[in-house]
Amino acid sequence: MQIRRLSIADYEALVELWERAKLHYKARGRDSKEEIAAQMAANPQFFLGAFEGDRLVGAVVLSSDMRRGWINRLAVDPGFRRRGIAKALIAESERVLKEAGIKVFAVHIENWNTGSKELFRKCGYVEHRDVTYFSKRESNEV
Ligand SMILES: CC(C)(COP(=O)(O)OP(=O)(O)OC[C@H]1O[C@@H](n2cnc3c(N)ncnc32)[C@H](O)[C@@H]1OP(=O)(O)O)[C@@H](O)C(=O)NCCC(=O)NCCS
Question: Given its phi and psi angles, is residue 82 left (phi above 0), alpha (psi -120 to 50 degrees) or beta?
């Protein structure tokens, strides 16, 4: 398994991976090909893929608000799970974010997602039960 930056040529494989992983994404909003291309152009180091040969088997999208680095859209192909691919993607994400001067790494995990919670706990992340996520958005597509 090798981790490398994704390019827009990987977009279709990325969407297929999200679909296989049953991960929610905003096809007409911030995960559309146009939006992803623009985000990649601005921060090419923030899109990472795990490959077995030519096959994309895991991916993560990073973001930074300058104070925190966020780990988003982490997904591993169901046929390749429990082999440490997500753990390796998280380690590489932290390395990339550190290079950008970030010292706090964060992730939003839906409450039901006990597998993901366990993964992040194992990677040293602390759960904050006293915080509830609020957001305001222009539409459900963004
Ligand atoms: C969550 C997900 C990314 C984990 O990917 P993965 O490559 O299988 O994870 P790893 O093999 O690196 O797991 C490392 C450790 O995390 C924990 N872990 C991972 N998945 C787990 C699960 N489903 N249940 C319990 N613990 C889990 C285990 O401690 C595991 O170590 P072990 O296999 O030695 O027991 C993958 O299941 C997935 O894509 N799920 C659907 C999308 C999703 O929920 N993404 C996260 C959004 S926040």
Answer: left
